[in-house]
Amino acid sequence: MGRSKAKNTKQPSLDFKVKKKKLGKKPLPNPNVTVTTFKSKALNMPGQNIAEEKDDLVNFRNLTLKDLLSKLSHYNDQIKKDSVTGIRDLISLHPVVLHSHLGSIMNKLVEVINDLDKDVRHCTHILIGNILKMTDEITISPFIPLYSVYINSGMTHLKTSIRLDSLRLLDIFIDHFPKLVSRHCHQMIPNYIDLLKRVSGSATTATVSTSTSSTATIQDPSTNGLKPANAQKKQKNTATSTPKANSLHTRVFILKSLYKLIQVLLVKPDLSFASLLNSIHRQQYHTPIVESKLLVNNQHAFQVYQEKKIFSSIFNKYNLKNEAAKAASASGDTQALYPTILETPDELKQFSLTLLPILIDLWLELGPSNPGISFQILEDLELVVNIVHLIVHCLKEFFSTSELYKGIRKDYIKYFSGHFPFYVGSASNPDSKEWITSNSINCVMTQIASHFLGFNPTDLDQVRDWYSPFLEYIEDSLNGKLIDEKVEGRQGQAIKNHISNLLWIIKVILPMLDKDQTFNILNAFIKFDENCHPHSTSKKSCVFFIKELIDIQSNSTLSKDKSFKNIIDWGLSSLPKLLWKLGNSDIDTTLMILNILLSVGKDKTKIKQYDLIQNALVPFFFTITKESEKFPNGRQIYGPFINLPLNIQFLALNTLYYFSSLNKIMIRSLIAICRCMYKNKIINNKDISFEVISFILDLIHNLYLVNNLSISHYIAFSTAITLSITSNENQDANDTDIEMKESDETLIKRKENTDNILAKLCWNINSLRLSNPIQDILEPMTPPFINELNKLNESNSHKSLYILTLIYSTFNNNNQEDEFINISKDLIKVLQVTLFTYMFNSIKHESNTINNSNNNNSLDYIKDFNIPILLIKSDKSNQTILNILNQISNKVNHGSTQIEKNNNNQFSILLLIELFRSKELYEDFQSIKSTIKSSVLKKIESSVKEVSEKHLVEKLLLESKLLFNE
């Protein structure tokens, strides 16, 4: 038997598997059962609904000003900081909030300026700086007294960081509103001295944190010179961590703030001469502060400070009595109620005696003799000498001859002069910070030493001993030893600015120098002036120094010195050259140079020196270059004069009045300026003003009246001006296009201005007849006028009237008719042709204008028969009128075409009618009555055959009958 087949034991698959239950475990929930239970929780968000819309203006965090101000009183420092930052964001987004709620903001911020947290103080200072930028003096002035009290409170705080931060806040107010702060700084000066005395003691007692001292000079322009505390810690600490180093840097920081304050209280010495120049326009925009009318009783404000005994009696005068307060209140004058400080000599003396020992200690402690000195220490040394300079300069006015001043001079020579000169860096790299700062220190030290010379140096032998190093430094500086010769000219401008601050010293020391030293120092100045760029500040200082040298020229000792006289001549000749180099880019310097030249010209004792600069002044107006292949007649170059403002142009022309006589080159330049205007040439997109031309005419006439101009030059000038109006030579190809594009108003305005100029010129010429015969005036004009009139007659130009007017102005008003015979025969022939040509063309142009009303040229055309008729009447021989009638007769039936003949006939008849109607020529026509009838009228009557011309002939005959009473 075979194997039986295996049985299939596999169970069929089930639709639902049932999991086995395990011992000790709960059964799984049935997945098919529906859960009907649920849970819920409430989410409460009070005041944080993003969708809520607020009526007031909000910042980035949707907070209003009310919300932010309320959080400034919070106990948490971070919330206060966020509130200050939120206010800053709010006013940057909506500036109107600041102007509407300035009082609320300022009154609330004052509570946190002395907060114990440094980050809160820092953010508050930034916010206040932003607010001050957005306000003005009048708006912020009510809050200055309040903030001054809080700043004074911060300066006396037990915590050092708060004391120093209060100085930073004071600096912010001084930067924006120094005048307002000066009214309320009477309490601050004693606090400064107290702070300096605290940190000037032993290093162990002056416990100042490293972060505060090391960041005293760290500035960030994006945050008004301040950085947050966490950023300050990341800065590289250049100072040592010893208490002595901390004390040193803290004193420097306090002195920087004090220096900024006393610069407001005292007059800062700026003897660079460039400051005088820069103050010209500053005075125009000066607006005085509106004085408050509130009465302030300061009687109890200074009782605490009297007890400090820093100044024995510095605040006594501020104890206002009731009588003084009542008097001030009744008169309304509150200026006396504002306390001030450092105004009287005694206050300044006490302040100086207190501060100078501190400055000397700091100078010695900084170690100026250390060769490896850092740049930060250099800046600190510069600060010390600047404060000393300010104090010495202010004391000089009151105590220059006192024992106090002599004592200060001894201390200065003992402690400061030993370290002079002070060099850090190299002249081969004049733009390095170390080299610039060290030379700034040297220049300030030299100025301080020069102040000790007094107004008139005495004891010259003793002075030369201690002052010789400073004198050598001045000479070396001017000779260029502070800047390597291999250095490019653009480098070293900062060094040159510092050197220019020494120029005022030369004026003081010149009397104490011998001839060789005077020669060397003045030649050194010439070298320095030549190395200065025309547009640099140092060049401006040189200009003012030249003015000072001119002013002291009358000194008997210096006037005998040839080197001094030579530098005066050189200085005067250099000023006109500088005018040409400046162009129109530096109006202030140009203005001051012209004032200097005027002051010299008005001084009759300097007339010879002044005459020497006339040729040098010519290129400032106009000049012509030498002949070349490209420019056979030379290139015409207009100087900076034509591009300057009108007031400076008048000032420049006034300088010409004081020359003993004007040469031909200068007269040519004035003619070129007038011609430029008449030809309507556009130079650098600027037209010469007609007012300037009128001023030039008055100037030339006045120069002739005072015998500073010959009559030949005067006639040549007048002739050239007249020909500038009439001549068409050298006219640009585009001039015609320009005239066609000009509007009617422009044409009318130009014609009116030209007529006014010509009227003034004719009046001036006519006034010459009071002392000169007509031959002396008219004969020089005859050749150019004959040539020009012939050209104008050929071109049928109406501008011949200008020449006719000028010729008629040469006649004597009382005897015009008898002077016609003095005119040359050649000029009379040309005049007869010109008179007919002008009158005939005037009639022709008038007829064409009537027929064509759209003719724009009619606005620029002159029709005036007054001058021609007066010239005709001036000829008693009647030759001129006969010649004109003969030309009219020849014009009849003259022409190449019939249309031209008809036009000439019409215009001739109209011209005769116009002449017959003239009352001035009535007697002349009566004397030549037969000639008119026999030749002129008969020819016209017989020649005219056209029907259109018959009515004109009839009108002419009617006018002749009226003329001859027929």
UniProtKB/TrEMBL annotation:
Protein name: Pre-rRNA-processing protein Ipi1 N-terminal domain-containing protein
Gene3D superfamilies reported for this sequence: Leucine-rich Repeat Variant (1.25.10.10)
Domain of life: Eukaryota
Species classification: Eukaryota, Amoebozoa, Evosea, Eumycetozoa, Dictyostelia
Region (Disordered): 1-30, 210-243
Annotated Pre-rRNA-processing protein Ipi1 N-terminal domain residues: 140-214
Gene Ontology cellular component terms for the protein in this record: nucleus
A Pfam short name: Ipi1_N
InterPro entries: ARM-like, ARM-type_fold, Ipi1_N
Keyword Nucleus: yes
Subcellular location: Nucleus
Record's keyword terms, sorted: Nucleus
Family, per entry: Belongs to the IPI1/TEX10 family.
